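Morning run. Coffee first, then this:
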Amino acid sequence: MSSHVDVVDPIEDVRAAACSDGAPSARNLIVTVFGDVVVPAGDATELTVADLAAVLAGFGVNERLVRTSLSRIVADGLLVARSSGRRSFYRVHPDALDLFRSADRRIYRPSTEPWDGSWTLVVLDGNEASPSRRARLRHELGWAGFGTVAPNVMASPVVEPDAVIDTVARVGGFSNVLVTRSTLHDGDGVLGRDELVRRAVELDELEASYATFSDRFAALGDDDLARLDDALALKTRLLLVSTFRRVALADPQLPPELLPADWAGRRARREADRVYRAVCAAADREVTTLTGLRAATDPGRFAR
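And here it is:
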């Protein structure tokens, strides 16, 4: 008996992508627009609800969904609104610019500095501050690249203590967070490097996510990308970045010494760079057409 396997056309896969299928979400897409398009044009650059709805129309996003999502993002402190007449203009909250820059580095340009073998450890007092503040601090440290290795204990081999101290101060409400950086010591009954890596990140799950990303976007050949009109080029770019963003921000981005030699994240970044370069200019043209924003994004943002 022969089996039939449906082959999905890669361009139709992009064309069909919609928020209604759950991935990506409208919130993820809006944050992606601000991180990938708006902030590179200037920290104070603003967009309206109508602008965002136009940019995201290809995903089935309308103004009502944009407003609902924006209210939550503003409540989270990532964006701030300014009213002028009947219109509201949105930009990245000044207090969130460092958070966007940290995410930008992790998505597009992870550190290539040699690893000195040290780990930064953060220990939270479970009785300090409010549960919401502790949750926010854990969330922001996770964005920065920390993994949770035990209750209220987080670790990263790449994030420096000064970055943690800045994050603790920004979140506020703490006075007893322990931050230290040191090397590990192996021995019987001692938590060693391999176990710390296992606790800090689910490598198998992360590798599967990178592989899924690579397979999806590798299907878009160079000839396919060259045939995209400006509107579909913009949708491809936003789909690419929003999809990669979800994986990259869940990745503590361990040094090469702590990763398998054939780590799937390397292939995923190569595919992201290839596709991004191919669609970047056309996507910028579409943004300018839809919003008037003079977008001029660096096509080489994805470092290999």
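The beta strands are 47-48, 79-84, 87-92, 118-123, 147-150, 153-156, 178-183. Good start to the day.
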